[in-house]
Design goal:
Blueprint (H helix, E strand, L loop, with lengths): L8 E3 L5 E7 L3 E6 H8 L4 H10 L6 H17 L7 E3 H5 L3 E4 L10
Parallel strand pairs: 1-4, 3-5
Antiparallel strand pairs: 1-2, 2-3
Helix pairs in contact: 1-3
Length: 109
Amino acid sequence: MEIIAEKDLLKDRYGNYYMVSHASKKALTIVNEAMYQALKETLDEELVAKVKANYLHDIACGKYFADLVHEQVEQMTNSENGGTIYDIEEVKKEYDLHIKPLYDDSFYL
């Protein structure tokens, strides 16, 4: 199993997806994918316009980022070049996992 940072995802038993932000031979650093998507965006008028263009009614901010993850998973499932989704329990057998907390000050973009 060779996991590629910023390309492959891990999925836990609850259906949460995690992006691999760093990979070495023995360890992975992972972060919740919806949180990663949210931290890549700047809250500005352009983002508000993009969200409003995709939905017929007002939505919670988190819904937009969760939908981005859902779209990414669909693309990965239907494409041979989009990366791989691994079961997190299987990955734990080969790698030490370091999970970035959701409210970590070390997030930067």
